[in-house]
Specification:
It contains four helices and 18 strands. The protein has helices at about 55-65, 100-105, 160-170, 235-245; strands spanning about 5-15, 25, 30, 35, 45, 65-70, 85, 90-95, 110-115, 120-125, 140-145, 155-160, 185, 200-205, 210-220, 245-255, 260, 265-270. The radius of gyration is 18 Å and the shape is globular.
Length: about 270
């Protein structure tokens, strides 16, 4: 039996059915080899195969003001339709015949919803780790190599890291929603950027799930954008860049799937 070291508990679960849109908070979720079932199963692309992303708000910003949810629970196999709520309150299913036309009108250019990645699929982004000086600053094309995910298919964030950021910049609102994690781990009083020690290690979540932490999550301009009741705030990213190389949270790969619930234990597998 491997030795286990307690890290904390699952305090929140988040899923984002359509990439770049706001998502939905869950009490339980199925974790598969590809990540949290239904997460980023849908995406928009433009005519040049650029994927819709919050990293370019002047182009894709209306997506970041939209929200998506499932009306039934995905089983981790074929993608199922999600309901999108657009900025004006209109609700459109991703499977609707008029969905592409409605989203194209919202964005002001031709775009279409996809569930399979074309070749090549590209992600437009300002340089990572710093706040762009202007809306028309440098843009870099990154290849998308893991379906519709920027990198890892599972993203974890701890309450310890959020508390450390708040300590470093008390006037800034470091709300977990800014970082779009799948799993928030309540580290039960631990302090500092505790995830920095996790890459390369295996973590057990609940009775079934085992994940391997890949790397820190380097942040971008998305963390600074206004959403819901959160204001636009460049100091979010500036604080992370100054004190933790712009890293907030970690990416992980799934070694063993299963069901995860809020309140489940999160433990480091030591052997």
């Amino acid at each position: 039996m491997p030795r286990m070291t307690r890290l904390g508990t699952v305090s929140a679960l988040w899923r984002f059915p359509v990439k770049a849109m706001m998502g939905e908070q869950l009490n339980r979720a199925l974790i598969t080899a590809g990540g949290l079932a239904g997460d980023r199963d849908w995406a928009l692309i433009d005519a040049d195969n650029h994927i819709g992303t919050g990293k370019i708000p002047r182009k894709w910003g209306p997506l970041f003001s939209s929200r998506a949810r499932y009306l039934e629970e995905p089983n981790g196999e074929a993608p199922i339709a999600a309901e999108m709520t657009l900025p004006d309150g209109e609700r459109v299913m991703t499977s609707a015949a008029e969905a592409d036309a409605r989203l194209s009108a919202l964005l002001g250019f031709e775009a279409r919803l996809i569930t399979e990645a074309p070749e090549p699929l590209k992600l437009e982004s300002p340089p990572l780790g710093k706040v762009p000086e202007s809306d028309d600053g440098e843009i870099v094309d990154f290849p998308v190599i893991n379906r519709f995910f920027d990198l890892g298919s599972l993203h974890l964030l701890t309450t310890a890291t959020l508390a450390k950021l708040r300590e470093l910049s008390p006037g800034t609102t470091f709300d977990a929603r800014r970082f779009r994690p799948n799993i928030i781990v309540d580290t039960e009083g631990a302090s500092g950027f505790v995830e920095n020690d996790w890459p390369g290690k295996v973590i057990a979540i609940g009775d079934e799930v085992r994940i391997k932490v890949m790397m820190p999550t380097i942040r971008c301009v998305v963390t600074t954008l206004a959403q819901d009741d959160l204001p636009n705030d460049p100091s979010v990213l500036k604080t992370a860049a100054e004190h933790n190389s712009a890293n907030v949270g970690v990416y992980a790969a799934v070694e063993q799937g299963g069901t995860v619930r809020r309140g489940d234990s999160v433990e480091l597998v030591d052997g």
